[in-house]
Design a protein that fits this description.
By secondary structure, this protein is mostly helical. Helix content is 80%, strand content 0%. It is elongated, with a radius of gyration of 24 Å.
């Protein structure tokens, strides 16, 4: 294996890690996200929520990545997350090149670890959105009790920001700061629903905006919304309990093929190499990867319930 290639791979990996670490430190300790140190900036930074949907595939992927990083709650910028993904790919490529000295295996390992990093971001995002969904009925109940006690809407939102923990506590703290700066309830809640794209959150934002314009019995409406939200959680729990065993079986079957392939490739390279040397073998490999992705997407579509 040429020494310059090894040195270049190590240099790129170390450079990406250094820049990513510096940006993570900057994002975590030298900025003030919602729930951080009380530094209120009048000029709001532009986020993915403020942009219209992109027309190109690359633009849609860029917006999806930015939204995923914003919703996973890590407190880092999309550029920092992109550098972490690049570092994981360079690290996997360098390690595989040192062990196997095979460019194809190097590319496959880099792609696999980069995809695995993206999956980790997506899993963290899914868990955070699930925690928000679980916490939202309590937030609505607290707002309803505050309104029953005679508090106005701004005071009820401030109470939620003080009493609730993460992840919704910092979000409503940001809303309280925006309202204190003179921003309207409608605009503030629209920004909140842009960052947290849940049906119940959109319903809550609509109720608060309509109440500010038209009035009405806000406490009773919030109590009804809380009941609907709890019914939704109960239904989703029953759905997960019904489909849990089938999903676990499907995931085990889907993971068995790639894991067996990687085991054979790294333990019996001489046996597997003729498969990649033959053009027909490469076609079969590409077809298998495509069918695996299509099968996973099909299973995900079958088990996704919009309620």
């Amino acid at each position: 294996m040429p020494i310059p290639i090894v040195l270049l791979t190590v240099f790129l990996a170390v450079a990406a890690l250094s820049v990513a670490a510096a940006m993570v430190i900057r994002d975590l300790f030298f900025t003030s996200p919602a729930g951080g140190r009380p530094a209120i900036n009048v000029r709001r930074a532009q986020t993915v929520v403020d942009h219209s949907p992109a027309a190109t595939v690359l633009g849609r992927f860029d917006q999806w990545f930015n939204r995923m990083i914003a919703e996973c709650g890590l407190g880092v910028t999309p550029m920092t997350a992109l550098l972490l993904v690049m570092f994981s790919g360079l690290l996997a490529a360098g390690a595989t090149l040192v062990v196997t000295n095979n460019p194809l295996a190097m590319a496959a390992a880099a792609a696999f670890l980069m995809c695995l990093t993206l999956v980790w971001f997506q899993v963290r995002r899914t868990r955070r959105m699930s925690e928000i969904q679980q916490q939202l009925p309590d937030v609505i109940d607290l707002m309803a009790r505050a309104v029953h006690a005679g508090e106005n809407l701004e005071q009820a939102i401030a109470l939620v920001s003080e009493e609730m923990s993460e992840p919704l506590g910092p979000e409503f703290r940001w809303c309280s700061q925006q309202l204190a700066l003179g921003r309207t309830v409608s605009a503030t809640m629209q920004s909140l629903t842009g960052r947290i794209q849940l049906i119940d959150m959109r319903l809550l934002a609509t109720i608060l905006a309509v109440h500010r314009k038209s009035g009405g019995n806000l406490a009773m409406t919030l109590e009804r919304l809380s009941g609907v939200s709890r019914d939704r959680l109960s239904y989703m729990g029953q759905m997960r309990a019904t489909t849990g065993s089938a999903l676990i079986s499907a995931r085990m079957i889907a993971a068995a093929g790639p894991m067996l392939f990687m085991f054979l490739y790294f333990t019996q390279t001489d046996y597997m190499q003729p498969f990649f040397d033959d053009p027909f073998g490469r076609i079969l490999f590409a077809t298998g990867v495509i069918l695996e992705i299509v099968g996973l997407a099909w299973i995900a579509g079958l088990t996704k319930v919009n309620y």
